[in-house]
C-alpha cells in the first residue's frame, strides 16, 4: 500500500468535495496525484487535449483565460481547474497564465473517473462547479441574454398608428391588414392612446357601440409606454405590474416607434411570469389563486436560469405578491360588497423594496380616511383578515412581528398612521428605530391612490428632525460588516459548527439602511433601494461615485444571496460559506464589505457629526 | 584502444554533466536517524519518491521503518518514532536492497546529501551491495551556491529545508517526517531549477 504523505493528505481533506467524502476518497486522491511546479515556462505542457487531468492549486496563483483571452477565473490555493473537459469530453477551451509559479496537484482522467464512479457527491460537486462556471461565463456575455436586451431589439418594428378621429371600423381593418393585435392612436407623432383587439371585443362589440364612432371614445387613454433603449426586463416588469399585454415603444422625442407585446416577450423566454400574473388577475376563487401561487417557486427557478441579474427575481416575486393581494381584495369585495369608502392597501419592508424572496413574510397595512365610521371599520377588519390569511395560504408567511392588515394597529386612518410615525421620530428608542426601518419602506398596492399620495406628502413633511437622522445614523453603525482588521472575513457559527457569512444582515441590510436614510433626507418617496439610489443622483446628499459603489455592492450581494438560496446549502438563510466561493468572488466580497464600511462611517459623520 | 578505467569514469562523468536536466529521472530520498554521527548512530527510517523534470508521482512514494534499530536513545524527540512503531518495520537489509533497485541509473536527490549518503553508504557496505545512482544532487548545496553568487552572507539557519522552500514561496509544511521531507526536497529542486533555468535548457552540470 502506498503510504500517504501527511501534508498532502491534510491539505486534500480540507478541500471541497473531499471534506464531505469518506477518508478513503482523500487517501485515493493523495496517493494517486502528481505534483507539478507550474511556471510560465512549462505551463504549455499542461491543459492539453492529449491528456485530460483534474488540477488542484496547492500554491501560487494563476489566471484561467477563455479562448478570447479574457479572465474566466483567478485561481489560487484550493481552486480546481481542468474539470469541464473531463466532464464533457469536449476540447479544452481555456488557457493558463501564471501570475506566481507554484505547486499544482494533478489527477489523471482515469483516476478522476474512478472517484466519480465511486462517490456520487464527488461527481455532483464538479458538475455543479461546471454549471456555475458556465453561468459566470454567461454573465460576461450579458448582451446575449434576453432580459438584458434592449426593447428595440425585440419589438415589432414600424408603428401601426391611426389618428384619434379615425373610426373604430378603420382600426379593425388596419389591424387585420397588418395582422397585429393593437394600434397606437397618435396625433402629430404624439402618443394619445392604445386600442387592442380585446378592446374591440369588450368595449365595442359587447356594448354594441357604433363602429363608425371615432377611436378616441374607446381607446385606453395615456397608456403606459416604454423607451426603445430600455431593457426588456423593464418592459416585462411594467407589464407584470400593471397587468397589460401591449406597450407602445417611444423614442427619446416621445415619437411612437412600435408596439411591444407580451407575445414578443414570450418568444424570448420559456417560462411566462406574464401569463401567471394574468391568470392571477382572473382567478375566480381563493382555491384557484392558491393553485396559481403554488407554481411560483417552480417558475422562479426556471426564470432564474434565464436571467443574469438575479436581483430582478426580487422584483418578480414582489409583482406576484402584489397581484395576489390585489386579486384577494377583489375577491373579498365580491363576497362582502364594494368598499364603503376610500382605502389604500399598502405594503412595507421587503415587498415594498421589491426585494422579496421565497422566504419573505408579509408586511402590510391598510390606510383609511379620517372620517371613517365604526361599521366601515368592521368591513376593513374583515378585509385585512381575509387577505392576510389567504396570502399565508398562498405561501407568503405571516409576519412574526404582526405587521399585517389583520392587526388593528396596522389598519389606521391617515392621522393615526401619522401619529405612529411621529412617536417614532421624536423618541428614537431602538424599538422605534426598528419600526422606522420597516415602515419607511412603503409602497401602495391597491385601493385609492389619492389617499396614499395625501398620506405620503404629509409624512414627508414630518421627517425633518435632525435628532432622528443622528439616531438613525448611529443605529446603522451598531451593525458591522464581517471584516476583520486585516480584511479577513469574520465568520459566524451555527449550532452545527458550520461557519458562514450573513450576507443579508451584515451586508444588504446595511446598504438598505444607509440608502433609506439619505433618501429620507432628500425626501425621496420610493421604497426600492436601486430606485432610491437612482433618485439620489439628482440630490446633493451623496457623490456620484458613492452612489454607483453602493449600487454595485447591493447588486453583487443580492446576486450572491439569491444564488445561495436557489442552491440551498445546509446553512441558515441568506448565509454563505466563503470557502465555497472562488477566489475572485472572495476578493469582490471583501471589496464590497469594505465599501459598505466606508459608507457607514461617512453616514455617521454626516448625520451624527461623528459623535459615536 | 581501451581507455584506462579511471579515464572511462571521468569521460562518463563529464558526459553525464552535459545531460539535459529534462532527460533524466530522479529519486528524492530522506532518512530519519538516531543522531548525526555516522559511526555511532543508526537509520530509523528511509523514504523515497520518483520524479522527473515535470512531475512528482506520489504513488511511487515509499516509506520504511528499520525494525533492527538497537538504541533509539533520545532521538524520538525529533522524529516521534518509538519502539512499538519500529516493530512494524522491515529489516534494514531489505530496505537497502529495495533502495538500490530504485536508485539504479537514476539521479539521487537529497537535502544535505553528505549526511544521508554517508549513512546509506555505510549500511550498504555492511550488507555488501553497491548503490549506484548516476549522480547525486544536493538541494542544500544548490541553494548555498545560489546565495553565495548573489553575495549575501549566509546565516546558519538559512539553508534548512523550510528556509530554502520559503524563498520560493513553497507551502510551509508543519509535519516533518522522512516522507514529507522527501516530497519537500523534490518540490524544492523543481522550484530551484525553474528559477535557475528561467525557461532555458539546463544541464546537470549547472546543478552540481
TrEMBL record, chain A:
The Cyclic nucleotide-binding domain sits at 53-126
Tell me where the transmembrane regions lie.
none
Is-annotated flag, keyword Signal?
A: no
| Enzyme Commission no | 1.1.1.205
Q: Where is the CBS domain?
A: 155-211, 219-276
PROSITE patterns, per the entry: CBS, CNMP_BINDING_3
Q: By its UniProt entry, which Pfam families does this protein fall under? A: CBS (PF00571), DUF294 (PF03445), DUF294_C (PF10335)
> Which keywords has UniProt assigned to this entry?
CBS domain, Oxidoreductase, Repeat
Task: Please name the SMART domains in this protein's record.
Answer: CBS
GO MF annotation list: [protein-PII] uridylyltransferase activity; IMP dehydrogenase activity
PANTHER family in the record: CBS DOMAIN AND CYCLIC NUCLEOTIDE-REGULATED NUCLEOTIDYLTRANSFERASE (PTHR48108:SF31), CBS DOMAIN-CONTAINING PROTEIN CBSX2, CHLOROPLASTIC (PTHR48108)
Question: What's the protein called, per UniProt?
Answer: Inosine-5'-monophosphate dehydrogenase
TrEMBL record, chain B:
| Key words, A-Z | Exonuclease, Hydrolase, Nuclease, Nucleotidyltransferase, Transferase
Occurrences of domain Exonuclease (ranges): 25-198
| EC number(s) recorded for this UniProt protein | 2.7.7.7
Q: Which GO terms describe its molecular function?
A: 3'-5' exonuclease activity; DNA-directed DNA polymerase activity; nucleic acid binding
Is Protease one of the keywords? no
Q: CDD domains this protein is in?
A: DEDDh
What is the uppermost EC class here?
transferase
A cellular component annotation (GO) from this entry: cytosol
Q: Which SMART domains match?
A: EXOIII
Kindly provide the name given to this protein in its UniProt entry. DNA polymerase III PolC-type
Can you name the source organism? Answer: Pseudoalteromonas holothuriae
